[in-house]
Automatic annotation (TrEMBL):
The keyword Protein biosynthesis applies. This is Eukaryotic translation initiation factor 3 subunit K. GO terms for molecular function: ribosome binding; translation initiation factor activity. InterPro entries: ARM-type_fold, eIF3k, Transl_init_fac_sub12_N_euk. The lineage of its organism: Eukaryota, Viridiplantae, Streptophyta, Embryophyta, Tracheophyta. One of its GO terms (cellular component) is eukaryotic translation initiation factor 3 complex. The keyword Cytoplasm does not apply.
């Protein structure tokens, strides 16, 4: 969960010490920003193998997909739903459908 992401804005030089954020920080600061889409998709892929799960990051990505439907990845959505259904928390699976 402490994975750091680069703030991806075009034509901006990134300074690793000042311009990196955790996924949790990205979704708090920019929950509807389509520029974080790739970071969130990569984070979903990281959740598939290990025993990690981030409801808030996954919900944020699904919300962005609502507004950026042309950028939606059905493979990522499938991973989110499978991961949500395999958690011990039943509310997480049902929460994905109430966006």
């Amino acid at each position: 969960m402490d994975r750091e992401m680069a703030n991806s804005t075009p034509n901006q030089k990134l300074q690793p010490s000042t311009m990196s954020y955790t996924v949790e920080q990205l979704i708090v600061v920019n929950p509807y920003n389509p520029n974080i889409l790739l970071d969130l998709e990569n984070y979903v892929n990281e959740q598939v193998s290990p025993q990690t799960y981030s409801l808030s990051a996954n919900q944020c990505l699904l919300r962005i997909y609502q507004f950026e439907s042309e950028r939606m990845s059905t493979q990522i959505v499938a991973c989110i739903l499978i991961k949500a259904s395999s958690t011990n928390h039943e509310r997480h699976f049902h929460g994905g459908f109430t966006l």
